[in-house]
Design goal:
Elements (H helix, E strand, L loop, with lengths): L2 E4 L8 H9 L2 E3 L1 H7 L2 H10 L19 E7 L2 E8 L2 E5 L1
Antiparallel strand pairs: 1-5, 2-3, 3-4, 4-5
Length: about 90
């Protein structure tokens, strides 16, 4: 799945669907999340968010206890997203 959007930039007219997606989610492991999303795109997002690629360089997203991973439905389709600093980053 490719990166779609985050909740900060979500279209106002579609916020109800975003809320339904969050309310109906299932928390999953990082390894399950990685099986379903484009890892190259995720690596770019991790870099933009300030995460390091290796733990010897600093904090990685995989080691950040404040990041959670989720599966849900948006517009009738399965989506995966991660939540970091209370911002949802959606892949569809």
């Amino acid at each position: 799945m490719k990166y779609y959007n985050n909740c900060v930039n979500w279209p106002r007219r579609d916020v109800g669907n975003l809320s339904d997606m969050i309310d109906g989610d299932l928390q999953i492991s990082r390894s399950t999340f990685l099986k379903h999303v484009d890892r190259n795109i995720l690596a770019g997002l991790e870099k933009q968010l300030g995460y390091m690629r290796h733990h010897r360089q600093g904090l990685t997203m995989a080691a950040d206890w404040a990041v959670s991973y989720h599966r849900s439905t948006l517009h009738g389709k399965r989506v995966y997203y991660f939540c970091q600093s209370c911002i949802e980053y959606v892949f569809k």
